[in-house]
Amino acid sequence: MQTTDIEREIRTFLVDTFLLGRGEELGDDAPLLNNVIDSPGVLELVIFLQDYFAITVPDEEVTPDNLDSINKAVAYVVRKLGSKS
Question: Are 73 and 14 in contact (CB under 8 A)?
């Protein structure tokens, strides 16, 4: 799966689930936590990533460094998919 495909799927999920389809101002590096998603939203994002990309997200990897922007989430998924090969 291409990085652009991963980015599109994550962005679509966030916009559809949390922004009611209004993602015009959702920048690639914009902080997600407390701006777009709250604590329960983080769990929804993790479940989506695990289900859609067939990866495992251990509790210790649920950090702002991995999930606090679209770019960080994309990079995280790319790393996880790369480690499955």
Answer: no
CB atoms under 10 Å from CB of 79, counted, come to 12
CATH number, residue 50: 1.10.1200.10
CA neighbor of 45 nearest in space, from 83, 81, 76: 76
Separation between Cα atoms, residue 38 and residue 61, nearest integer Å: 17
Number of domains in the chain: 1
Please report, in tens digits, the pLDDT of each residue of the chain (85 residues total): 899 999 999 999 999 999 988 888 789 999 999 889 999 999 999 999 999 999 999 999 999 999 999 999 999 999 999 976 5
Q: What domain range includes position 61?
A: 3-19+28-83
